[in-house]
Amino acid sequence: MNPSRVLIAGNPNCGKTTLFNVLTKSREKTGNYSGVTVMKAEKYSPLLGRDVVDLPGAYSLSSSSRDEKEAQSELSRSAGCIINVMDSARIMQSLSLTLELEKLGIPMIVALNMADELEARGGSVDAEKLSARLGIPCVVISAKTGKGISALKKAVDHARVPPENRDLTPKRVCEGVLCVENGASRYALSDRIDAVLTHRVFGLPVFAALIVFAVILSFIAASPAEKLADAAFSALSSRLYGVMIRSGTAPFLVSLICGAVLPGVSGIIGFVPSLVMLFFFFSLLEDSGYMARAAFMWDGVFSRFGMTGKAAASLLVGLGCTVPAIASARTASSENERRRMILMLPFVPCGAKFPVAVLVSKAVFGRYAAIAAGCLYVFCILSALVFAALTKGKSGGAGFAAEIPPYRFPSVKKAAKDAARKAGEILKRIFTVVFLSSVAFWAAGYLAPDLSPAGSPEKSILFSVCGYLSVLTVPAGFCDARLTAALIGGILAKENIVSIISQLCAGSSPFSDPRTAVCFLVFSMLYTPCVSALKTVFSEGGGEGRRERRVFRLLALKVFLISNAYALAVSGILGSLLAVFQVP
Known about the structure:
Shape: elongated
Oligomer: single chain
Distance between the termini: 71 Å
Strand content: 5-15%
Largest sheet: 6 strands, mixed
Helix content: 55-70%
């Protein structure tokens, strides 16, 4: 037995990861819906003095999905203690897993989480009675507020192996333990809200409207900060250029700093405020409990394509980033559904694509740019659904079953922390990947094929190579070496698209007409995901046998080829329709 490992186990959406963050001072992703944790996380806890492992949520130890199998695998290994986290208001539903965990013969305790929410509804839980029936320590806590954490530490130190040979059932254990006074009125209110937000006819239009609304709010809220950032970088660039010219700095260095690095970095930094606001509003939606309902609402749509609401849950994760969305496909009911989900997810607009939508929408639609960008998000989601329909297969296996979390007033503090974490990740990519890409593309645009200074961009290595490659995008409705260069950079990181356009166009527009701009915008939102996403697909079969590893390596290649072909087809069809309707 390894006394240095503490395993946190429980049903999905019971607050395991929130407790893990408190114990280890981490910032792992949390959310008010199931399926947020699909891979284990392990870190040392200064509070407990041991390593703590946050396991994916599971309803039983005999589940078939890959994320729940990972939890089962960890539980089968030696551990010093199990912290079984329960939602205090849903003890009956949690006890099936608890009784299975007791049979493992590992010291354990029960953490009755979300006690503050239960008390706010006039309810209470008798931890001593539950402890006597289970034969292990039970503590009432609130991981969100920190209540009961010191008592939890003491309980971990005194964890014991549950008694054997007992005939217990969830109903018998739970009897007289939980008292909820205002439950009926609370759920009546929840039902009234659901009648509007998840209506079988109006539910999907409401979802689309909320996405558009979040994008519009991001535009409006971030506008002052964007203008300030643009003005600051413009002034810095002008001043630095003057200083370097007066000091006799080498021309190539002036070109590198003032013509590549500053325009490239500032081009994307100006969009960081709107990105942060978008993540902030999405975090509020997640925390409210709406996203879990949206997944159930989409279950009926995906079931027609041989998939389940688990695909919808991954789609919603993909609005933030494609990498965790691909990882969340582990929750799929079958391997066939999982692979189809992975093929579909690149068409979901991740946060890194948002600056592209903002840049092109402002250039084409002017004051209606916010509405256009919001509609583009909905269009991309619909494109993902069309792809799912085109690749329709057999049923994905078992239906989508998960508990609907209660509606909660979203925490502005938590949403701000999530947005700040995302901002940190974005800035890190800007000052690493985007910065290095700016230097690399500058060098390719500064040097001629014989490695001498090109003199003009048209004679450079960059324009020579991208000029040939731009022929491949003609069916998509555009043909420009600068746009092709931006798309190549976007494979490394989607932020590079805006950065390279800002760097190569130097204030001029790369779009000859609105139709070209729209075709480029649609293509850039649907074409191949970034290298990180492709690498995630490539490594998804890493823990399996040789055959599975080969399948996922081939799947990564399929994602690259199919996403590019699909983007080419959709943007080409759209361009043709615009031409038919004589859009300039």
